[in-house]
UniProtKB/TrEMBL annotation:
InterPro entries the record matches: DUF465, DUF465_sf
Keywords (A to Z) from UniProt: Coiled coil
This protein's name: DUF465 domain-containing protein
Keyword Coiled coil among UniProt keywords: yes
Superkingdom assignment: Bacteria
Pfam families recorded: DUF465 (PF04325)
Coiled-coil features, chain-numbered ranges: 3-58
Length: 65
């Protein structure tokens, strides 16, 4: 993948991560008792966070001073 494609993918992942966060908050606020669904959403959100971190690490390499 090119750098531009990675940046687009990163933006899509960040949007999905925010959407999942909002969905989890909405379920919690609505008093949802479906803990399995909430757990699945949280697991997906964590996987997205890992993917975001990998892409960011690739795009922004560590600079050792």
């Amino acid at each position: 993948m090119t750098e531009e494609e990675l940046r687009k993918r990163l933006e899509i992942l960040k949007i999905e991560h925010r959407d999942l966060d909002a969905a989890i908050d909405a379920l919690g606020a609505a008093g949802s008792t479906d803990q399995l669904q909430i757990a699945r959403l949280k697991k997906r959100k964590l996987a997205l966070k890992d993917q975001i971190a990998q892409i960011e690490d690739y795009l922004i390499p560590d600079i050792i001073a």
